[in-house]
Every structure is written in structure tokens, then in C-alpha cells.
Amino acid sequence: MSTVLEAMEQAALSSLAAATNSEELEAWHQDYLGRKGKVTVFMRSIGSLPAEERPQAGQAGNQLRLLLEERHTARQTEIREVELARALVEETIDVTLPGRRPWTGGLHPITLTLRRMYAIFAEMGFQVYRSREVESDLYNFELLNMPPEHPARDMWDTFYVSDSVVLRTHTSPGQMRAMRDYCPEPVRVIVPGKCYRYEQVTARSEFMFHQVEGLAIGTDITLADLKGVMATFARRMFGPERQMRFRASYFPFTEPSVEVDMDCIICGGEGCRVCKHTGWVEIAGAGMVHPTVLRNGGYDPEQFSGFAFGMGPERIAMILNDVDDIRYFYGNDLRFLRQFGNL
Ligand code: FA5
Q1: Does the CB atom of residue 285 touch ligand 1 within 6 A?
Q2: Do residues 204 and 196 make contact, with C-beta atoms less than 8 angstroms apart?
Q3: What strands lie across the sheet with 160-162, from one edge to the other?
Q4: What's the 193 CA to ligand 1 centre distance in angstroms?
Q5: Rounded to the nearest whole angstrom, what is the distance from the C-alpha of residue 167 to the centroid of ligand 1?
């Protein structure tokens, strides 16, 4: 018996001395002291020995196990020291290398544009009024003078949630909600938010985009007030040298209706795909609130009048930043987005 253990001890100690790194040391531990290790197997075999031999064999086996554990710990300490010393030499850090800048979040260019718009309209006395993105057909169309089957509904290609619920195609339903909230008081609000249209995505049109609706209701409001507000906005947003024009247009909820264009900064008026080769970029639809709409909002059109407009901040951001394709804004390309704000 003792010869078996002596041989095991010698073999174990010499292979322990040969282990030179943590992996080999771990393998050695498994080999002798692990669950299927040689010493463990020996200890398990004691039960099958004649009864009188068992105490002595058990004692000898235990001694060997303790000895090997002790030597293993000592060797482990040695190897760790060697490995640490090597790592300190080989894995030095060059502290003179330039660091990597951590990425912090930043504001999206459309958020930045919207904030500038809020500030300009706030100075003209407009409050921000929030309205829902998922709207009823009633508010998106019907109360805006577009009964079911009205052909003007085709102006807005619509995502339907159900027969009578839509993703709003414009922020104009916010006009109606504001009127019904404020009536019979005068109103001066802007309604910013996302709109959705089931239409072809192009360099100038997205299926999801923002609008900023404006609405002013009072007793003496005229088209001249609308022109003044639009011109002041354009000067503040784009600078005094930029050109703006009004074009006669049609919307079911305004009469008369206009469209507001800015000269195209991208081509300098020469014509490009953003301005559909006209030299002008449409930034808003607008007009005097239709009497039917005033009445639906609770106001007497004999006594009250008002103007409304719906602007496209993406188009405005394109003009301001010389961006020639609207799709960049929602393409999630950080190389594009980091050019704005503090990304
Ligand atoms: C409207 O949506 C009307 N509700 C605007 C209005 C409000 C008129 C109040 C009268 C009174 P229009 O479909 O033209 O109108 O859109 C208004 C603006 O939203 C456009 O001038 C444009 O700047 C922007 N816009 C419209 N469709 C898109 C689109 N697919 N992608 C990006 N911007 C768009």
C-alpha cells in the first residue's frame, strides 16, 4: 500500500514542479485532487480493502492529500507572481496615446428646428398646444369641413387604424381641439407634432414627418395678420435677405387659402429635385379659418375670424442646413446626425 502512495506522491510532486502556468496547475489539480483525480479515486477504493487495513490506508491517503494541497498552494503563489511580473512588462499601457472620446447623446436636428420655431412663435404670443397623433376621422377630416366621401380627402393619403380612427395626416385636427378647449376666448396657439401619410417617400417627402400648426382666433383678425406673422417668422428663421412668396391655393378648412414658399437655398433658385425644379420650396399651407370650421369649434363666424397655417419643420431644416434629401433625417446615420447640436 505505502509503495503505491509513495509512487503517487513522487509522480505528483515532480509533475507539480513541471507546471509553469495557471492552466497547467489547474490541470494538475484535477489530475490528483479533482473529483476523478488519482488521490480521490484511491480514497474511494479504501472501502473495498480488508477491514484491518482500512484505518492505516485512510490515514496515509489523507496525509498525501493534505501534502499535495499544501504544495499546490505554494506553487500557485509562485506561478502567480511570475505571471504578474510578466504581465507588468508585456502589457504596459501607453498613456501617451490619444483617448477615445465618449459619445454623449444630443438633440436631433428636427428637435433643434422645432425649438427655434417655438421660440419665434412664443415671442409673437403663441402657446404650444399638444394634440393626439392617433385621431378620429371626425377630427382629422369631418369637423374640418370634409364629410365622408368628400373628394378633398384624397389630398391626404391616410393610414387607417380602423374605419373611424386614423394616424393624423396633418396637425389641423389640433385646431379643432384647441378651439373647443378655449371657446369662447380668443386663441393663439401652435400645435407641433408628428404626422403620417401613406405616400411615396422621396427626397422631399417622408411618410412620417412633423408639422407645426398655427391658429389665431379673435374678433378682428384678417389675412394681413397671417401675412405679417408668416413674414416675421421667415425673417427670424431664415434671415432678412431670404425671399418668401404667397400662392393662392385650396384647403377645405380655410377660405381663402394660400401656400407659403421660400426660395430654394440648395440650388439658389436655379431648380433642383428638392424644389421640384421651381426654385421655391413649399414650407406651409395656410388661410383664413373657414366659417364652417369656426362654427364646429364653437365660434360665431359673424363675430369671430381667424387664420391658420401648417408648416413642415423638415423642409425648414433642409433649407436652413442645406440638406438635399429629407431621408437623411430619419436614416439614423450618426455621421449625419452628429453634424448638428452636441452629438
Ligand atoms: C396641410 O397639411 C394643411 N393641414 C396645412 C394647413 C393648415 C392649411 C392650416 C391651412 C390651414 P399640406 O399637405 O400642404 O397642408 O402640408 C403642409 C406642410 O407640411 C407642407 O408645406 C410641407 O412643408 C409639409 N409636408 C407635407 N407633406 C409632407 C411630407 N410627406 N414630408 C415632409 N413634409 C411634408
Answers
A1: yes
A2: no
A3: 134-136, 165-167, 160-162
A4: 12
A5: 15
In order along its 343 residues, the chain shows pLDDT tens digits of 578 888 999 999 999 999 999 999 999 999 999 999 999 999 999 989 899 989 998 999 999 999 999 999 999 999 999 999 998 888 888 889 998 888 788 899 999 999 999 999 999 999 999 999 999 999 999 999 999 888 878 778 899 999 999 999 999 999 999 999 999 999 999 999 999 999 999 998 999 999 999 999 999 999 999 999 999 999 899 888 888 899 999 999 999 999 999 888 778 778 887 788 888 888 899 999 999 999 999 999 999 999 999 999 999 999 889 898 999 999 999 999 988 876 4
SS3 content of the chain, % helix, strand, coil (to 5): 45, 20, 35
Beta strands in the chain (DSSP E): 127-128, 134-136, 160-162, 165-167, 187-196, 208-218, 244-251, 254-263, 280-289, 305-311
140 lines ligand 1 (CB under 6 A): no
Residue 309 CB–ligand 1 contact under 6 Å:
yes
Ligand 1 centre distance from Cα of residue 38 (Å): 82
58, 63, 67, 68 alpha-carbon torsion, rounded to 10°: -10
- Distance separating alpha carbons of residues 299 and 301, to the nearest angstrom: 6
User: Is residue 141 within 6 Å of ligand 1 at its C-beta?
Assistant: no
Atom of ligand 1 lying closest to residue 172 CA: 4
Q: Angle, nearest 10°, between helix axes 38-45 and 2-18?
A: 160
Instruction: For residue 63, report the distance from its CA to the centre of ligand 1, in Å.
Output: 89
